[in-house]
Amino acid sequence: MQYEYERAAFIHAFIRTKQAMLKDQLEGVSGDEMELKETFWDNVTMNFSNTEDAQETISSIKQQAELLNERERSSELMKKQMRTLRRLADSPYFGRIDMKEKGADTPDALYIGLASLMDETDSEFLIYDWRAPISSVYYDSEVGPVSYEAPVGTVKGELVGKRQYVFRRGELKALFDTSLAIGDDRLKEALSNEASTNMKTIVSTIQKEQNQAIRNENSRFLIVQGVAGSGKTSVAMQRAAYLLFRHREQLDANQLILFSPNELFSNYVSTVLPELGEENMIQLTFRGYLFKRLSKTYMVEDGFEQLEYMLQANNDELYRTRLVSISTKSSMAFKEKMDQFINGLETGGVPFKDIRFRNETILSKEDTQTYFYCLDHTISLQNRLRLTAEWLLKELAKHEGKERSSKWVEETRELLDKETLLAAHHEILAEHPNEDVFNEEEQQFQNLAKQITRAAFMPLKRRVKSYSFVDAERLYEQFLFDSCHEETEGFAAAALFSMNEINNGRIPHEDATPFLYLQDRIKGLRVDRSIKHIFIDEAQDYSYFQLMYLKMLYPAAKYTIVGDSSQALYAHSKNDPVLMDLSDTEETTTKIVFRKSYRSTEPIMKFARELLVDPNVVEPFEREGTSPVLVECTNRASMIEPMKNKIETLLESGVSTLAVITKTANEAADAHARLSEWIDIQLVAKDHHEYNEGAVVLPVYLAKGIEFDAVIVFDASDSQYSTDQERHHLYTACTRAMHTLVLFSSGHASRWINHIPRQLYTKQALS
To answer: Using an 8 Å Cβ cutoff, are 446 and 465 in contact?
Structure first.
């Protein structure tokens, strides 16, 4: 064991020495770079007197530019090496495997860390990167015969021993041997730490099933169904880092996209890849994509607004109508119906708009439709639209020419300012320098008439080029009323609701994706084939239609789709399958299930899983902690003071992150208003990108994917959580807690809590 401490000290000293050397080299390169920039033109011979001299000048400029680029590349490489060394200085490695390859006499001791580290001659690995092929043995294998896939093929051997390490600020604090993948002691030590406002890396504690997901490269669709706290989001991020490492010659970060549930979550995970030495991939939200596409024309309801309505609305006619609307339009059957409808448009049915100019129809929708459907039917809809647009532009050009002699053009010309007239005069002189000056006035009139009509027709031309002559609203209306309402009870009312909203400039969330899909299939969509991998988190909150739409947007990409059906919060999740198979028959799909939950202590997870229909889908990790506490109060007002006292006690005990979690945003605002009179607490809303340490209050759908040291459920009463769907909301809220869970209830607690065995929580009643 003494050798291990001596080696750790040597590695620490080696890293510090290398840091110092790199710092000196970087200062030298940076100085050269600065000098080159300052003296760039001094070192260039400028002479363009003849072709030969000009070529020599260009060659001189290129030579200086290449020299500068070389210094900049060297500087950037050294900075990257410095960042790697800084990460290794704190914790150089976390594991070791003793492996004897087939045919070898003795085993080799291989140390595993966040990044590779070579010796002073760059010939031997002192530390192997956790993503290296041989490192998979550390995560997957027990002592005994092993094999792993390397670039040269399958390597076989024997794992003789395995060891794990704990470092603090570069100093080795503990080590222990294990025959298993990752020992529970190492995992418990990592999980006992405080939560952070940014996600932590899990490379030192990756479990076998997690490693299989991270290193999967054969499947186009990797679907991970993982219970709350099973590390599925962490796995997705480590998987991105692994792919960037394994395919660094062909793949870079801007070819990967993460679809996050909200901006708060995006910020929460934004530090993971940089900590692993990789650039951040592109981060988007589906909500943001819909807004970007539709907000210029419509007020777009986002998923949060839809969820808020469904959670707070009375069970009235409109509520029931929207329930039908949401469940139908998110389904596989609805998309199949739309695809059938689109196929039928090949022979007829695409509605067009009149093209009007100065309140007069100059090209009727009937004429456009006739031209469109007179084109060869073997030509695709998109190409027929392109040909129709070209025809319309020619027709507009004819009308534009006729309008130049119109009275309105002359009236407009008379109102032009002197600067415009003077510019027209100079333009004529430049174009016709030798012509008779007496023709100038006529030429000026013609030029101005051209300019005036060109400007007037420009908006029409832009709309034609964007295919706005297709009546998208009527097309969607045709689909809703002609294709669906006879088969679904209550859908006629849902269709009427949707079209009334759309005609008034508002688009409901459940209509946004089908509405875009229909337009894109007709008009053509410029898909992005440069994207090589899509990561979708909290996939259970996407409808089938939304996931298929994303597949259409990025046809060349592979997909990593992670989620938990037990945390499905949206109305469409009630009847629609989640985490479905997106693959076609010829494409490979791998589904991996994570059952073990690591985030919460065992008492919290044993309590929370009882909120599910089948508690056995969750396996709590054996980590000690205190039992959850249920505090029943007579009403909401009486909850506030004891809740305030509990928050203060927890913060004084050293809790870094504490969340008061509510069901809705309105409830979060109410809780914040009541609690902020007593304590310092931050209200987190849907457009927030970050939150502070200390106490925060937020609705459960914004807390998804995030963990806190302590969680207080604001009002876990039966009036708040009684439906099957609200059961998932309560489960999600409880599973955000790592170490402490307290539930306050105004009146009787939720029926889903009351059926939990009493030995799993402590109950307090306050008058």
So the answer is: no
